[in-house]
Amino acid sequence: MQKHYHFIGIGGIGMSALARILLKRGEIVTGSDIFESPTIENLRVGGAQITIGHNPKKMKKPHAVIYSSDIPEDNSEYIFAKKEGIPLLHRSNLLAQLLEGYAPVLVTGTHGKTTTAALLAHVLLEAGMDPSYAIGGYLSGPNSNGRHGKGMYFAVEADESDGSFLNYPSFSAIITNLEHDHMNFWKTEEALLKAFRQFANQVGSKKHFFWCYDDMLLRSLKLPGISYGFGEHADLVIENFQQIKWKMTFDLSFQGKHYRNLEIPLIGGHNVLNASAVFGLGLKLDISEKTLRKGFRIFQGVGRRVEKKGKAAEIEIYDDYAHHPTEIFATLRALKHALIGKRLVVAFQPHRYSRTKYCLDDFADAFEYADQVILTDIFAAREPPLPEVTPKKVVERIQAGGYNAIRFVGREELVEYLASHLKPGDVLITMGAGDITTVGPAVLEKLGK
Q1: Does the first or last residue of the chain, that is N or C, have fewer Cβ atoms within 10 Å of its Cβ?
Q2: Strand runs (DSSP E) across 183-300, as ranges?
C-alpha cells in the first residue's frame, strides 16, 4: 500500500535525500520549509508537494511525519502531529527503516564523511551494482544526494553529531577520523569514545570495516577491522602521495599487493585517506581494480567541497562547507598548493555559537595558508547568542595566534565588500556551513556587470 510521508524541513540536505528515495519507491511525499531553494524545486519536479512556511492546516493526515534534530518541539506541524496521534519519526529512524533488506555500508567520522560516502556511491555505480545511497551532499555527476537502487548495497553518510549513527544496522563501515566536535551534544570525551566503540562493534562484517590508523583517538579505541593510513603499521598503507595542481597520485599496499599510480581529481592528504578507505573497501566488495581505478579518475567530486562557482573579472570563486578548524586548515593547505602563487582570500562564516565557543582556540592556526581572511557574522542555526562568543572575539583569537591579515565585515555588507576589494588574479573561497554559500554567486554577478 502506498504511504504518505510529510517532512518538516524537507529542504535540508539529509531530509531531502530520504524524500528523494521515497519518491522513487512510489510513496507520497509532502513537506514544508521556511524558504524556496533549488533542492525544493528539484523535489517538486520529482513529485513532492511542498509548501513554504509551516502550516498544520495544509498537512492533511500523513502516515508519518518526519523531523530532524534541527526541528524544535514547539514547531506548529510537530505539535499538530503529536496532538492528532500521527506517528512522528526522527530522520534517522526513517532511514533505519529504509535500510531494511539491504547491506548497509555506513561512513561516519568527524570530517570527510560526505566526500568518502560520495566516492563510495560513485564506485558502486561504476561497478554496475545499482546501489541506493543517502549522502549529505550532491554527487556532482548525477547531481543527487539520494538514490533508490535495486542492488544490495546502500551507502549512507551516518551522522554522529546527534548520536543517530547508532540507530542504523550495518554490514560494512568506514570511520574517517574522530575529533572533539558537537560537544554540546556529547558533553564528555568519554561519551563520544563510547559511542564510536559501540558503532564499531555493531558493524556486521569486520572484514568490511575500515578505520583510519593515523587518527590517535581511533587508534586508542583498539578497534577491530582493517586500518588504513600513511603510518607503516596500518593494514592498508598509503605511499608516494603527490598533489599536482588539482589532481593527486598515490600508491597503496594492501594484503600483500601493491597498487601503483592511483589517480583522483581531488586535493589534499585528507582526501587521499578518504580515497584509500574506499579503494580498500571496494576490493573487499569484489569490485575489480580496473573499475576502481576508472571510478577514481572520473570522480567529479561533491557539492560544497572546494566547488568552483565560476570566474569573473579574472577572479576565481570557490565554495566549501568547512567550518571546523581542522577542516579549514586541511582545505586551505590543499587549495594553496593547487593554486601555485595566486592570492587566496577566504570569506569565513563561523557556524553555531556553541561550536565557535568550543573551537575558539583552534581557529588561531586554521588560516595559516590564507593570504587574507574576511570573517563575517556567526550563523546561529537556531541557537541563541552567547554573549562571550562574538565575531570580534574570533578575530582577536586568530590575531593572538600571530595571523593579522584578517578583518570583520558584516554579513549584509559582505558581497559588496568582496566585489569591490578583490583584485584580478585573486582566488576567493567562501567557507562555512551556513548561508555563506550564497555569497560566491552574488559576488560573481556583481563582478560580471
Answers
A1: N
A2: 209-212, 226-229, 236-244, 247-254, 257-264
Q: Interior CA angle at 21 toward 431 and 441, to 5°?
A: 25
Q: Check whether residue 321 and residue 289 sit in a common domain.
A: no
Residue 94 placed within a domain: no
Output the tens digit of pLDDT for each of the chain's 449 residues. Answer: 899 999 999 999 999 999 999 999 999 999 999 999 999 999 999 999 999 999 999 998 999 999 999 999 999 999 999 999 999 999 999 999 999 999 999 999 999 999 999 999 999 999 999 999 999 999 998 889 999 999 999 999 999 999 999 999 999 999 999 999 888 899 999 999 999 999 999 999 999 999 999 999 999 999 999 999 999 999 999 999 999 999 999 999 999 999 999 999 999 999 999 999 999 999 999 999 999 999 999 999 999 999 999 999 999 999 999 999 999 999 999 999 999 999 999 999 999 999 999 999 999 999 999 999 999 999 999 899 999 999 999 999 999 999 999 999 999 999 999 999 999 999 999 999 999 999 999 999 999 97
* Separation CA 291–CA 105 (nearest Å): 19
> Is the same domain home to 364 and 250?
no
**384 and 275 together in one domain:** no
Tally the domains of the chain. 3
My answer on whether 8 and 147 are in the same domain is no
Decide: pTM greater than 0.85: yes
Domain final position from 244, 263, 298: 298
Nearest-10 Cα torsion for 43, 49, 52, 56: -140
Separation in Å, CA 268 to CA 86, 146, 182, 329, 338? 47, 26, 24, 10, 9
Question: Same domain for 217 and 317?
Answer: no
405 and 384, same domain (yes or no): yes
Residue range of the domain that includes 431: 307-448
Q: Among all chains, which residue has been given the C-alpha cell 571546523?
A: 324
d(CA 377, CA 90): 30
Of 313, 331, 309, give the one whose Cα is nearest residue 422.
Answer: 313
Q: Among 298, 326, 357, identify where a domain stops.
A: 298
